[in-house]
Design goal:
Blueprint lengths: L14 H8 L5 H13 L4 E5 L3 H11 L8 E5 H10 L6 H9 L5 H18 L1 H7 L2 H10 L1 H5 L4 H16 L6 E2 H9 L10 H10 L8 H7 L2 E2 L7 E5 L3 E3 L2 H12 L3 E4 H6 L3 E2 L6 E4 L2 H11 L6 E3 L6 H12 L4 E3 L5 H14 L2 E2 L4 H6 L18 H10 L9 H8 L11
Parallel strand pairs: 3-4, 9-10, 9-11, 11-12
Antiparallel strand pairs: 1-2, 5-7, 5-10, 6-8
Protein name: TIGR02679 family protein
InterPro entries: CHP02679, CHP02679_N, DUF2399
Pfam family, one: DUF3323
Length: 422
């Protein structure tokens, strides 16, 4: 290359000639690789894969070297810098590439600044978090990266989302307020807490601190908030008793006096909760409505208190069980002997302090064959390791309806049923 006169640019870069030499389509990939190598720091050489003949020829001519070969086109950064310096185009590669494409990034400094920005996000709300006793929640958001993901890695948006979530948490618990009303009050947007919205996700994470698998409706209900008005979520009950209360208590008492099953909605349980009366026997919980119907037919008002989950517990079921457990009322559970039934039993026994009711390996083996094979993935019974093994060996589903007469005998208040039958 021919040496030119020194240019007047204080950086020592002859930009017009530099652009004429380097700003060509056939060198575009090479220059991107060089810039990336300079930004990473410490790179001695860069390469591009599967170069075209035009790319290979342009780089070989630029460096004044023999035609190269191979699957990758390799460039020594020192050789390129020496070429530019000898041609008086630039004193060094950094000056050349900053003149061509702007300042080089410093990934290390950028990473440090990002870390400082995120530290400011989490520190900005520390006083309010401490006041709400939500330190574990905030620590989990930081540790798991949930807030960063919801904010699209934008610290400014993240701080706003965190502030909004804390604003909602300040308004909890409620007593039967609808989710949309809560969202309108706290966020100015009636849909701001809808499923999938970032603030809703953050608040639900706070409500689900122990990461239980409750439904979204049940999580909101645990804070006294009704999703969809709480009308459709209900729990089937028989002969529950109350001490005091309003309209809901009157309904419960009237039904128990006549031994009739009733459905209580989530709305009733949250907006007009009765004061539940303790009872000598545990409140029994079953999985299938047929058990409630048969118990009501056989025993009427002489049936011990009974609740039905109707499969996976709804928000209303979870709310009622939480209320009863909080009142110090003992609970016992029976369900289907199949793998989904064991999963439901694990949840109710683990979360609500219920004891198993005729749900041991011996109870399973005593039941008559159903002819229905067990399917789906095996689930271990947390309260009885032998139960799972017995179920796998026998391979039969035992539904509650097949043992309903045994359950009804336990529920008969006119006789001593012999305790909880664990």
């Amino acid at each position: 290359m021919t040496r030119s006169k020194a240019c007047s640019d204080p950086s020592g870069v002859d930009l017009p000639r530099l652009r004429s030499l380097l700003d060509r389509p056939e060198l575009e990939r090479v220059l991107r690789a060089v810039r990336s190598g300079l930004e990473r720091g410490g790179a001695e050489r860069v390469s591009i894969a599967d170069p075209t003949e035009q790319e290979r020829r342009a780089l070989d001519e630029l460096l004044g070297r023999r035609p190269s070969t191979g699957a990758r086109l390799v460039l020594s950064l020192g050789q390129l810098e020496d070429t530019l310096r000898r041609a008086a185009l630039a004193p060094n590669l950094r000056s050349a590439f900053e003149s061509l494409g702007g300042p080089l990034r410093n990934p290390s400094l950028e990473r440090e600044e990002r870390e400082r920005a995120w530290r400011r996000v989490f520190d900005s709300q520390s006083a309010e978090v401490e006041r709400l006793g939500a330190g574990a929640w905030l620590a989990a958001l930081e540790r798991e990266g949930l807030l960063k993901r919801l904010a699209g890695q934008d610290p400014v948006l993240a701080e706003r989302l965190l502030s909004q979530a804390l604003g909602v948490l300040q308004c909890l618990p409620q007593r039967g307020k609808t989710l949309s009303a809560l969202a309108a009050e706290c966020l100015g947007d009636a849909h701001g807490l809808d499923e999938g919205r970032p603030v809703a996700t953050l608040v639900r994470r706070a409500l689900n601190a122990d990461e239980q698998s409750d439904s979204s409706d049940a999580l909101w209900a645990s804070a006294g908030v009704l999703v969809g008005g709480g009308i459709t979520s209900s729990v089937l009950a028989l002969n529950l008793r109350v001490e005091t209360g309003g309209a809901t208590a009157s309904i419960v008492d009237a039904a128990a006096d006549s031994g009739e099953p009733i459905y209580l909605t989530l709305r009733q349980l949250l907006r007009d909760p009765p004061v539940w009366a303790p009872c000598a026997t545990p409140v029994s919980i079953c999985e299938n409505p047929a058990v409630v119907a048969e118990a009501a037919n056989a025993l009427g008002a002489d049936c011990a208190p009974l609740i039905c989950t109707r499969g996976q517990p709804s928000a209303a079921v979870v709310t009622l069980l939480n209320q009863l457990a909080a009142a110090g009322i003992r609970l016992r559970y029976h369900g289907d002997f199949d793998w989904p039934g064991i999963r439901i039993a694990n949840g109710i026994i683990g979360r609500h302090g219920a004891i198993p009711w005729r749900m041991g390996a011996a109870d399973y083996l005593e039941a008559e064959d159903s002819g229905k094979p067990l399917t789906e993935e095996v689930v271990a019974a947390d309260w009885d390791p032998e139960l799972g093994r017995a179920m796998q060996e026998r391979g039969q589903v035992i539904e509650e309806e097949r043992v309903v007469q045994v359950l009804i005998a336990d529920l008969d208040l006119r006789v001593d049923s012999g305790g909880s039958h664990g």
